[in-house]
Amino acid sequence: MQLNNSEKEKFKKLLYQWQEDGLLSSDKVNDLKLNIDQLHQKSSPFDWKNLSFLAFFFAVVCIILATSLMITGDWLEKIVNAIFDVPDILKSLFFFIVAGGLSYLAKKRRERHPKKVFSNESLFMFGAISVAFGITYLGFSLDMTNGYYPVLILTASVIYGAAGIYLNSAINWYLSMAAFTLWFGSETTYWAKDNDLFIGMNYPMRYVLFGLLLLLLSKIMNRLEWEQKFVNSAYVLGLLSLFMALWLLSIFGNYADLIAWREVSQFNFILWALVLALASAIAIYYGLKHEDKISRDIGILFLLLNIYTRYFEYLWDSMHKVLFFSILAVSFWLIGRKAESVWNLADK
User: Fold this and answer.
1) For 54-85, b where at least 16 C-beta lie within 10 A, e where not — what string?
2) Distance from chain centroid for Cα 74
3) Using CA of residue 313, residue 315, residue 317, residue 322, what is the dihedral sign?
4) Cβ neighbours around 14 below 10 Å, total
5) pLDDT for 189-212, tens place per residue?
6) b/e string for 299-322 if b means 16 or more Cβ within 10 A?
7) What distance lies between CA 265 and its chain's CA centroid?
8) pTM for the whole thing?
9) What is the longest distance spanned by two Cα atoms in the chain?
10) Residue in 162, 192, 201, 157 with CA at minimum distance from that of residue 176
11) What is the rounded distance in angstroms from the CA atom of residue 246 to the CA atom of residue 240?
């Protein structure tokens, strides 16, 4: 067993507390402190786990950036066309085979080296990128990139989701959720045609429904006893989509035209601000009652965001800037002071 600095201090605090409660003698406490110091000395002074995560994270980011630049610059298409002078459908099939091979290797590697989480997931990411290429060339072969393109995004979401569940891959599942979010926006935009509103709803209004849909989906997944990481990702994305959409509605209302929006007073959107405040209060209450940290923290975050947004909207033009920022500074200090008290209480 190895201990870092934080764990060392926590163990020593426990020993002092047990000594005060009469559960341990002073001699026993001293012996245990020596053992803790030895465990701490054996531990590595450098956090190699975080370095590993950061290294693989930036490797994946660089691959994604390189891939994006190749696609936007038509380099990829030129390279593939130069190597494979075959129809687009065969190029698509090739990339799907490569994706399957990479996923198979990643799965086998994870079975042999289960503790190498980051390197295993990065292999799954390379397979996912190959899937994206396969879907792109499938779209070229069916001439869908300039037509009904949202179905390609939905196809990606389904493939990533199936791969995530079958391979138990978090990366594939998160990509599925991201693609599903993107599909919803592109699908509603496609059906809206030249109109910026879809069935009378702008983007934030649509994503309120999307957030509620994801929350319902997470509840169903939970009842079906899916793996918790899959349920949690849908739950978190649903909450964030819902609250971000409500926050944007409190600023823009259900307007899609910025020119028309500028001519309307922000006080006209006070109802949406109240809806956001009510939703935040419900999330906080639910989080406290059911010990749901995600719901509680998101509720607190958007309650504060709502308050400060209204502060800027209603008082920026009418209040002297010295007084404006002075009140802002005092409010942040009070929040920090309260947060510090709660933190210290939890630490005890």
Assistant:
1) eebeeebeeeeeebeebeeeeebbeebeeeee
2) 30
3) negative
4) 13
5) 888 776 678 888 888 899 999 999
6) beebbebbeebbeebeeeeeeeee
7) 33
8) 0.68
9) 81
10) 157
11) 10
